[in-house]
Design goal:
254 residues, mainly alpha, 2 domains, 9 helices, 59% helix, elongated
């Protein structure tokens, strides 16, 4: 927004908005213009007089933090505007803006903010770590499926260079966490399928190892749903595999 003038009046027309810092730049300049003075107006003036402080001055006390030109390197990008913001709100006990998805993914983002601050690295680092571990999980899954290192490595490499994983892993969105848990829930469901097929029925039903794998699959399903609702659809596939396993045992031992 370009304009000329000596004074700027900011007026809020509705509640719910929040300004952290503002700055004004000459066209093409890299440093903000100095603000000579800032005066509260209206209800804010009465509040400042009551508390004997100029709270409006907080709007311009850290102008060095305002980027000259917003970009992905210094600001939120794409759906980060919702998820990183909501993680910050969780951290500070503020009113939560984004409630479309369950909270766990934003809690993971919050952990990075706690460790490294409210900056692009802070709100992206945990998602990047989850994305980095996905190819390793796919490698283990592939080895379980095919029993050969060569095929497991091919599966892992395909996931390593998958553009969607790379793109989502660079941003503070919840999709990476959901995919991470979906892969794990199917990995353990496959292990349950194999263990259940190899174990005879006894007084406790299937073998302990099979029950443990089934429990792990259920755990990661719950975690996936706590991140994003798409994991519910992934759970439909788990239910089909579980039903097929029960039917197989029924046919085998009837």
């Amino acid at each position: 927004m370009e304009f000329q003038g000596r004074y700027v009046l900011l007026t809020a027309t509705s509640t719910g908005a929040m300004l952290n810092e503002i700055a004004f730049f000459d066209k093409g300049a890299q440093t903000p213009l100095p603000v000579k003075s800032i005066m509260p107006y209206g209800p804010l003036a009465a509040l400042s007089a009551e508390s004997n402080s100029n709270q409006a001055g907080n709007l311009t006390d850290e102008q060095h933090t305002v980027p000259t030109e917003p970009s992905y390197a210094n600001s939120t990008y794409f759906d980060e505007v919702y998820h990183a913001r909501t993680a910050y709100e969780y951290l500070h006990g503020l009113s939560v803006y984004e409630t479309t998805h369950p909270p766990l993914g934003k809690v993971f983002i919050e952990l990075g903010i706690i460790a490294f601050g409210m900056n692009p690295f802070g709100w992206r680092v945990v998602g990047a770590l989850f994305a980095a571990f996905i190819p390793a999980i796919v490698y283990v899954f592939g080895y379980r499926l095919f029993g050969r290192t060569r095929y497991a490595l091919i599966a892992s490499l395909l996931m390593t260079f998958d553009f969607m994983r790379v793109a989502q892993g660079r941003m503070a969105t919840v999709d990476t966490y959901a995919v991470f848990f979906i892969i794990l829930m199917y990995y353990y469901m496959y292990r349950y399928w194999v263990a259940a097929a190899a174990s005879p029925l006894n007084s406790l039903g299937i073998a302990r190892q099979a029950r443990l794998n089934l429990g792990c699959s259920g755990l990661f399903f719950v975690l996936g749903v706590a991140v994003k609702w798409i994991s519910v659809y992934a759970g439909c596939g788990l239910a089909l595999v579980l039903f097929a396993s029960i039917l197989r045992k029924y046919i085998e031992f009837r």
